[in-house]
Amino acid sequence: YGIISGSRNSFKVYGIISGSRNSFRVYGIISGSRNSFRVYGIISGSRNSFRVYGIISGSRNSFRVYGIISGSRNSFRVYGIISSSRNSSETYGILSGPRNSFRVYGILLGSRNSS
Predict the structure, then answer these.
(1) Are 69 and 81 in contact (CB under 8 A)?
(2) pLDDT on residue 36
(3) At 83, is the pLDDT very low, low, confident or very high (cuts 50, 70, 90)?
(4) Would you say 29 and 41 are in contact if contact means Cβ atoms under 8 Å apart?
(5) What ranges do the domains of the chain cover?
(6) What angle do CA 87, 93, 94 make, to 5 degrees?
(7) How far apart are CA 17 and CA 15, in angstroms?
(8) Of 4, 19, 40, 90, which cross-links 110 as Cys (Cβ 3.0–4.6 Å)?
């Protein structure tokens, strides 16, 4: 219950953390990088399958996210606006669904596998 400012596996935290370490709940602002993943927003949930309520701006496997993400990490559902490139595919629109077989509700503009 307080303010943590430091790094754990190159993960700088600026905000308020309330919870345990492994499955810690976060109520505050986190600004740092985890596997080149910069986070600017509010995270509430556990680490591995963490639910995100806030704004995330960063890159994960050259995947820049500008919007609101709510869901787990691997098969995370996305409710918001994503503007990024994943495997040279520029996306401008709203994504809602899991990562691998995600349903797309919005506008896609770009090329993936030269299509």
Answers:
(1) no
(2) 40
(3) very low
(4) yes
(5) 2-94
(6) 105
(7) 7
(8) 90
Rg of the Cα atoms in the chain: 15
CA distance 13 to 30: 5
The long-range contacts involving 103-112, CB below 8 angstroms and separated by at least 24 positions, are 106/81, 110/85, 112/86, 112/87, 112/88
Q: What is the pLDDT of residues 38-68, one digit of tens each?
A: 444 444 444 444 444 444 444 443 344 444 4
Predicted TM-score (pTM) of this structure: 0.15
3-state secondary structure 30-50: EEEECCCCEEEECECCCCCCC
Do the strands 38-41 and 55-59 form a parallel or antiparallel pair, or are they unpaired?
Answer: unpaired
Compute the C-alpha angle 55/59/63, nearest 5°: 105
- Residue 35 CB neighbours (<10 A): 10
- The first and second tokens of residue 107, run together, are 């506008």
